[in-house]
């Protein structure tokens, strides 16, 4: 990395990640009722009006991913890429949580 002395703050060698990546793979997610936001560690904060309702879903997704990873460790031949939990998390990451499948009556 490079150090540059200046009067402004510059960030080098940083990568942007989606909020869902932080929520799924970051530190433990907690709900702060006072500030109405989801908090990941002491460094990422997400305003969320219904975070108390979303947190159990986030924790379920995190748990499902951990279960798939544990199964893959136990059985290296396990096809983790086709696990429903992995597919759901891939959709969350790909769509930013706005993905859906239209209902088809046919």
Outline of the structure:
This protein is 41% helix and 11% strand.
How would you describe the overall organization of this protein?
With 106 residues, the protein is of the alpha+beta class. The chain has 3 helices and 3 strands. Strands 1-2-3 form a 3-stranded antiparallel beta sheet, covered by helices on one side. Helix 2 packs across helix 3.
Mean pLDDT: 86
Relative strand content = 5-15%
Rg: 18 Å
Number of helices: 3
Helix content: 40-55%
Please summarize the sheet with the most strands.
Answer: 3 strands, antiparallel
Major sheet: order of its strands?
Answer: 1-2-3
What oligomeric state do the depicted chains represent? Answer: single chain
- Which regions have little confidence, pLDDT < 50, spanning 5+ residues? none
- Helix/strand-derived category reads alpha+beta
Order of helices and strands: HEEEHH
List the helices and strands and how they pair.
Blueprint: H1 19-25, E1 29-32, E2 37-40, E3 44-47, H2 51-74, H3 84-95
Antiparallel strand pairs: 1-2, 2-3
Keywords:
single chain, 3 strands, globular, alpha+beta, 106 residues
